[in-house]
């Protein structure tokens, strides 16, 4: 096989430093890996059988072995010339020598074997005629809250470790090698193997590891590499590489060597929406909702709708305790409006609010089921299971993004973080399903869609700039007309023509849309001042719910953004937006 064998002499200190060049009495240098080339058996004239080992010092001359059977030693005179010829005693390369097996065992403390795959072994001439190893590898990482579950002693988190499916076509002796890539402090690492059917395609849950005994267990050590050689029958096996302690992070490479073909693949769960995470309120309103309606109507506008800022006040008043109120922050409220507003107005009706309250109750129950140690605090390692209870089946890549976004410094999430993650997932699955009408699990996104969005943002930005300049230049009708056309065209490119028409021609927006579009028409007809007054009135009615977002967008428009971010004007805009604590970045 394409393997290299080396031997070395270590004492405790040198095993750590590997820097000593001290020599033993027989000339062997400590801390140097000698290459082992061959083991031969010879018979002396007296009939004694001697086992000889052929070694080579990688440093060449200067570290010559001077013990029994050394180059030019008297022991060679005790065997026939034909044997000396066979062992090429006189034609050995520099640094090569023979040593008796008994002295070899007494001298060297460690034997190291390096297995090379077919591609790597091409660089070693002595391996060209050897049978090559079949090798499969997987490069991964242990990440806190995602794949760092610790060894099998940690029954609650062991299943989140990377799971690799090994398939052997026939009974074979395999070598499994796990390397960690830690630079500073090496982690204690190892791996465990289980018997697994060949047709397994998805990751294995917690219950499997509680019910099934492990088949192979490597040693756990803080060395850079852990290897294990074992005989396995034909079939499928589950390999689970881990750190000894959970939550420890580092990257790793796992290699499996075999003399016969083999397969190795990562087991993961495809992301899917098992059920809707948004719970619809019962059609018959009971006492549970009547207590909220009065508060809702106090904050609602004339259309009985609320925006994100009013929703925040509403949740602060209606939610029962502090730990549930953690979802009443502005970021979550904006996400609620984005997820639950089907009209595109940026506002929620009372029916939407009822759905939200029912959903929060459902999400709180799922959150509570997975917060065993302390109420209101969810360990990141349990996020996947908690989201599965809500209705989201996630793979490792998606979970990694959520953990990166929501996990706190102590490795936990609060209820507000959990709610925000659910809302983001609802949006993502909703967008996917809208582009997958046949529900075949795949979508195609064209570059044209991205280009249209980018073009739309640019057109809207230029349109607003032209409008602003037109007003500054004493209501220049040409600039105002161009600005209006560019703004409406940009809006249609960003959200699509159908959604644009739906946005403007909803029944409760007829007055606002008529004012806005009528003002645009009046500007185009040549009465810029009157048209802009009517248009501004309609714009305020239409986009009042979007004012914070609109102002944030305008601040990023070249030239116009510089003006809007001036100290005095910036404070006024913050008050208009309803967010006095906003910081522009």
UniProtKB/TrEMBL annotation:
Membrane-spanning intervals of the chain: 451-475, 481-498, 510-530, 536-554
Protein location: Membrane
Gene Ontology, cellular component aspect: cytoplasm; endomembrane system; membrane
Domain Calpain catalytic span(s) in chain numbering: 22-117
PROSITE patterns reported in the protein's UniProt record: CALPAIN_CAT
Keyword Transmembrane helix annotated: yes
Family the entry assigns: Belongs to the peptidase C2 family.
Protein name as catalogued: Calpain-C isoform X1
Organism of derivation: Vespula squamosa
